[in-house]
Structures are given as C-alpha cells and as structure tokens.
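Q: Given only this backbone (88 positions), what sequence would you predict?
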C-alpha cells in the first residue's frame, strides 16, 4: 500500500480516529481474514480519549496529542500493519 506512512517512531504515535468501549473498557475488531480480536484498553490516556469522545463526539478530530509508550497504540500498530511492512 503506497502513500501510507509507517508509524515507526513510538514517541509520535497518536490517536486520530475515535475508539469505542462498550464492554468492560474494551473494543472488538473484525479483520479481513474473518477473525475478530478483543482489546481491553489499558493505558489511562486511551481511556481518557474514549471518555472524551463519548461525552463530546464532535471532539474526536481535535485529540491529536502524542502518547509515547502507549501500550494500546502499540497493540493497534501490531495488529493493523501487515508483516510485509516490517512492523510485526
């Protein structure tokens, strides 16, 4: 996939799109190969991001703060970038 910058510097990783958390501080993701995976959000910054989006849905685009060492963002990168991109 061309034109998509790889998130190689974990200090610059940030949330841009809103996340949901309907069940016990977690979200479920569906993948193209038909498997699903549940992620329990662990980092307080992730939970704060989710709560802010819940309380004010119009705010989701405005939360563009880097969250270095965020284990939830690390999980997302591990699960959404392919092996061919060299990040797994």
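A: Predicted residues:
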């Amino acid at each position: 996939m061309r034109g998509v910058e790889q998130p190689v510097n974990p200090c610059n990783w940030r949330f841009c799109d809103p996340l949901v958390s309907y069940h016990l501080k977690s979200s479920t993701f569906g993948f193209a190969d038909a498997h699903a995976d549940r992620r329990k959000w662990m980092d307080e910054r992730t939970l704060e991001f989710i709560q802010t989006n819940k309380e004010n849905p119009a705010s989701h685009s405005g939360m563009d703060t880097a969250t270095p060492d965020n284990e939830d963002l690390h999980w997302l990168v591990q699960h959404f970038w392919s092996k061919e991109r060299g990040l797994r």
